[in-house]
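Journal club side-thread
Mid-discussion, someone asked how the predicted structure for our own chain would compare to the paper's figures. Pasting it here so we can look after the session.
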Amino acid sequence: MNAALDITRYRKHWAERFGTAPFLPMTRAEMDALGWDSCDIILVTGDAYVDLPSFGMAVIGRVLEGQGFRVGIIAQPDWHSAEPFAALGRPNLFFGITGGNMDSMVNRYTAERRLRSDDAYTPGGIGGKRPDRSVIVYAQRAREAFKDVPIVIGGIEASLRRIAHFDYWSEKIRRSVLLDAKADLLVYGNGERQVCEIAHRLAAGARIDELTDVRGTAFVRKALPAGWIEIDSTHLDEPGVLEPPVDPYAMAVQSAPAPATAQPAENVVRFVRRVKNADRERSVIRMPSYEQVTADPVLYAHASRILHLEANPGNARALAQRHGDFDVWLNPPPIPLSTAEMDWVYERPYQRQPHPVYGEAAIPAYKMIRFSVAIQRGCFGGCSFCSITEHEGRIIQNRSEASILREVEDIRDRVPGFTGVISDLGGPTANMYRLACRSREIESACRRPSCVFPGICTNLDTNHAPLIQLYRKVRELPGIRKVLIASGVRYDLAVESPEYVKELVQHHTGGYLKIAPEAISDGPLAMMMKPGIGAYDRFKELFDRYSREAGKEQYLIPYFIAAHPGTRDEDMLELAVWLKRNGFRADQVQAFLPSPMASATAMYHAGKNPLKRVRRSGGEVHVPKGLKVRRLHKAFLRYHDPNNWPMLREALRRMGRAELIGSGKHQLVPAYQPPGTGEAHEGHRGARTGERAGPRPQPFRTQHTGLPRTPRR
């Protein structure tokens, strides 16, 4: 893997002399109090400004401040005019723009495309404080305010829209957000390394259009630069008819006419497996154009597969996708942060509170995570419906034990309302801390989208001892009464370490532990890239045993997704029967939402499986589409709700499973209908059974007791 400049080793910008801001300023009055005549960088975000390392703009702002730059924040501006975007004056270097911690469309709409009434990242939880497609709108308003200031977009909304992508809310292919936002540069993935390099190079006098070699960025260019080798992506993963066998090590110049969207033929190389290592860093993969993937769903699935194959920082090549007369050019992903860099990022002088401008207004997301600590980034699970691996990468970036302990002590000593309970110690997953490939060489060469599917890779070190030691040290700190684990536990990894499961169950579970099987049938599980239900059964056996040994009555709370690609009515029926047999009643359910760039979204749009080589014939995926079937799949998860019984009885008869209608122990729904329930009450069900606003789906409620509706991490 290529070396990267340590972000703590930059020579600090001259403005470091102004010192550290108590909060990054949101007004000119705060700038005046700090002695600033201007900001070097202004960050615009769709979230309220909470100075906490769980909020992306706070992290980027404090990281840039640590480089010596003066950073201001414009949070949730009124986007109806450019005036709020000029409130802090003209930035000397650039505007940095993000939609916030969540994609703005996911934040504003449910999986059924209903407008949410609340927003967990807004004071008072009030909805409507950000526009649809916030990155585009904010970038356009910033451009109106100061036409000549460079605009850099980033965060998860930009990251997942960096190429042509299927947009669930309009049911069409949209262009790269870089073009629609008319931005100069797009930062994808975790952005600390990229923004440090961008800021220092601009401060040194570089022009924004000269920054074409920054890893983890995308930009627009008109033509292929001299000296580059262009590779047609369809020669890597042919979506059409198979060609005759070719020597995999041969490099033959293409003699056939080049596609209209490609560059001159002498630059185009046809090959099956690889080019010479010496040429890799000057190779770019030509993906199907925006126009092609718009017209051809098979090419869309192919492009999705290529993007995911070229995601390892150790071997990824640049990608180019034509949009009309321009190329959207993606440089390879950023080099992951080292442990020392991670410590530096998380130990910036965060106030760990919302900006004082919000007064006493509660910000729901802050209340939920103010006592939690992130110990790592990244996820090598690669679930096809999830954005974590696509955004943060599959190489785990760890903090040091000492840094984590210092943050816990900081929470204990400084955060108002702390009662001695750390609400979470984790990250995208709870138990990937310090797990990695046994070989750096193998890791750098690997193209697997998951280290744990279809089974745990033999090269993966699954030793949970460092995590167990961390748990013990945190709970031994003075003033710490309890440490809970709220992040999702990867249970197929956990069963590799029974000692970890014992530690988790006996010391870090507060009566209920939420895990995510997502499905139980092989069909949907294969499309999700999730382990079989046998792994859940093994974990439950350990969970129950260690709970009994500790004398505790504790329950597993599983999550499931309705209407995921690959799921048939029969799969949901099997799951409903399993839920009833195991005594689970879903309080709220999560329907599949096709997020931009996810592999499962390519399945949803194209009806093809991009987890394997995409072909014109074969590889079809059953996709449950349409309101009626999505409602039915959600109804199976809430089989106990009388309002769903008419729909379920009709489905059971259609499926030839009428024996499941009745009041018997092993039957799913009764034959009778209670007065005042049924389809006529569909409107009343919406608020209770639909997805709530907030950063995560909602949990199950068991038959044994009622669970608080705590958002899932």
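Post-session note: The first strand starts at residue 41 and ends at 45.
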